Amino acid sequence: MPTSPRRGLRSTSSTPAVPSGDSTVSPSGVVKRVAPSSGTPASETARTIAPRAVVARAGLYLRQLDAFKGQGVHTVSSRQLGEALNLGDAQVRKDLAWFGQFGHPGVGYDVIDLAESLRAALGLDRVWPVALVGVGNLGRALLRDRGFSQRGFQVECVFDKDPRLVGQRCEGFLVEPVERLAELLAARRIVLVVLCVPADQAQAVAHRAVEGGAKGILNFAPVALSLPPGVDVVPVDLSIHLERLAYHAHHAGR
Amino acid sequence: MPTSPRRGLRSTSSTPAVPSGDSTVSPSGVVKRVAPSSGTPASETARTIAPRAVVARAGLYLRQLDAFKGQGVHTVSSRQLGEALNLGDAQVRKDLAWFGQFGHPGVGYDVIDLAESLRAALGLDRVWPVALVGVGNLGRALLRDRGFSQRGFQVECVFDKDPRLVGQRCEGFLVEPVERLAELLAARRIVLVVLCVPADQAQAVAHRAVEGGAKGILNFAPVALSLPPGVDVVPVDLSIHLERLAYHAHHAGR
């Protein structure tokens, strides 16, 4: 946990997109969960954590810092860090201020120091155990993917509802019955869950996960989940990547 | 194509992360392709297209505008649009300026107009045919996913190298031999390709796709692709979503 002072949570109550005191997330993932509307004081935690969009950009800064490091660059300015992501230097400094006080005026940021501090602030200086629910095609593909574990996320538990799969090994993992989801998450203190179940089962499975103490759900099911405050959902929206490519193809002409 | 004036391409040559005149993309996707270094004039197209990070944010603005629309909101300010994504209003205006001149001082943006203009500027006011290569677990999962087609991306062609799959139907699609990739892309004028092949085949398959006229490649293989300028690659990095969840779980405590 970083000890540096953090900014308070900026009010988002003027944004019509945010349903107060709710954690419903649109399929696009742009509607954020916020603390209950004024009158109910936000918890201490809620007041000091960075908003989702800022955390997402922090992940991009981290990757860019790692790229700088790989190129032997020792020091960067907020301007250089911003240029790589086409963000203004003021925006970069504002974003980073959520995670601590970094850098020296006129000198910039030490690439390695900033990456390490950011990693610690983001909670990425440890291995996170992850549970995966649903070993259909997508679930199997994700279990084979080494990308997660390379970045510190270790699948420890795999679930399915199909009795033909339960008790079998899948990509090396023993498949547990989804009925045991809450019990095993709690027992193994797993708070991150990857949901690869069909849309019509996602809400019920997510509820079981929350019962077991899940705090974060990566949702591949094409459905919006409604969950209690304190549980974060990231819906995976692959079409946004195709949109980026379409823009460039559109302008490249043919 | 939008006819409004656009900003020129800002120089990124001072950013050490950018390999000049190259389109190599790191697995994190943060290293951008740029026009060849000074001396070689950038093409007319290269000078007027928005950088990748800006296009990615445009996709988020679009989703937020759709959310506003769903809530019956008619007009928004750059501040409100920014707040939803925790971006400053200056950053929002700067980003939108890449795509045209929108909004009225003191009034803000008309939600429906801005969404439509942005959609047109991004090339999303049409259906894009897409080819998918590799019908393993991930490929099959993506073929089943209705999310792509809901946002205007239609899979029209499916390829694999496995002779047991070629000629068969997979999720309703006839599987073509990967040897015909270039030929069929060109014949059907498909410029967007989703790559779901193993890492050791990705580079070779991507080259075939480029031969067939591919302009954009969504790369699920955990390997960096090196492709000629003018071809855009988006590597899919799912761990960034888990990082976001980890941050919140880290601070929610347990």
Structure commentary:
Two copies of one chain form a homodimer. Chain A is α/β, with parallel strands linked by helices and about 250 residues long. Chain A folds into two domains: about 70 residues, Arc Repressor Mutant, subunit A (Orthogonal Bundle); about 110 residues, Rossmann fold (3-Layer(aba) Sandwich). Helices cover about 40% and strands about 15% of the residues of chain A. The first copy, chain A, has ten helices and nine strands. In chain A, the strands form two sheets. Chain A has a seven-stranded mixed beta sheet, with helices on both faces. In chain A, strands 1-2 form a two-stranded antiparallel sheet. In chain A, strand 5 and strand 6 form a beta hairpin. The longest helix of chain A is centred in the N-terminal third of the chain and has 19 residues. Chain A starts with about 45 loop residues before the first helix and ends with a helix. The N terminus of chain A is likely disordered. Chains A and B meet through helix 2, helix 3, helix 4, helix 6 and helix 7 of A and helix 2, helix 3, helix 4, helix 6 and helix 7 of B.
